[in-house]
Design goal:
alpha+beta; eight-stranded antiparallel β-barrel; 34% helix; Alpha-Beta Plaits; globular
Length: 219
């Protein structure tokens, strides 16, 4: 599976209008893409980082399926009118591609808090980092801190990047765990192993604004 992440820098003070405008398009995705069962779309907004930013996630079986989907979207009824208005909200943007190493089958519901942890793996240690972050998801779930764990690796841009995304109940719970986790012997052992294959990392925080999916036949 491929995850395509479009980052849109929204004109200052226009974030709510931009999200509402994008949500109206995403609600039509099941009818626009009827033949792409299993495809998912997610829209997130920033809690941390540069204001005001919208992140559009598209999950497709392959890059070719994504490219085919773009052509279907561009040709769909009303898209050009929608895009003309969308351009009024956006002042910059970028696009990244990721391989989904561990999927989470989607988030719980709009309004969910998403923690995105980006790790810089040491050269040629990406697979080791993926295995350790998969273990980390289980540790977070056991601690009652986060669920719906997803792991990504770079398919574009700089090499040796690994991303972990999880859903947490609230930022207070996440911060409390962050301050106390090093007292846990299991975490200490895991972190020592992580140090052998990761050199640095960052945390980012988002709110899930909208999501939609194309259900598999019979699903």
């Amino acid at each position: 599976m491929i995850l395509v992440r479009d980052t849109f820098r929204i004109r200052f003070g226009k974030i709510d209008q931009a999200v509402d405008h994008f949500r109206r398009l995403s609600e039509k995705f099941p009818t626009i893409f009827p033949g792409l069962e299993g495809t998912r779309f997610e829209l997130m907004t920033d809690i941390s980082g540069p204001m005001y930013t919208v992140y559009d996630y598209s999950i497709f079986p392959s890059i070719q399926a994504w490219e085919d989907g773009l052509q279907v979207l561009f040709a769909s009824a009303g898209f050009q009118d929608w895009f003309k208005d969308w351009k009024q909200y956006v002042e910059d943007g970028s696009r990244e591609f990721f391989h989904i190493e561990r999927d989470n089958e989607g988030w719980s519901s709009p309004g969910a808090l998403i923690v995105r942890s980006c790790f810089r793996a040491l050269e040629w240690r990406v697979h080791d980092a993926v295995a350790l972050l998969t273990d980390h998801g289980a540790l977070l779930a056991d601690a009652g801190v986060a669920v719906r764990h997803r792991v990504l690796t770079d398919a574009s841009g700089r090499m040796f990047n690994v991303v972990q995304e999880v859903e947490t109940t609230d930022l207070g719970t996440w911060e409390e765990h962050r301050r106390t986790m090093f007292s846990n012997p299991t975490f200490q052992s895991w972190f020592r192993r992580l140090l052998t294959c990761v050199s640095s990392g960052t945390n980012e925080f988002y709110t899930l604004a909208a999501m939609s999916s194309i259900k598999a036949k019979g699903g």
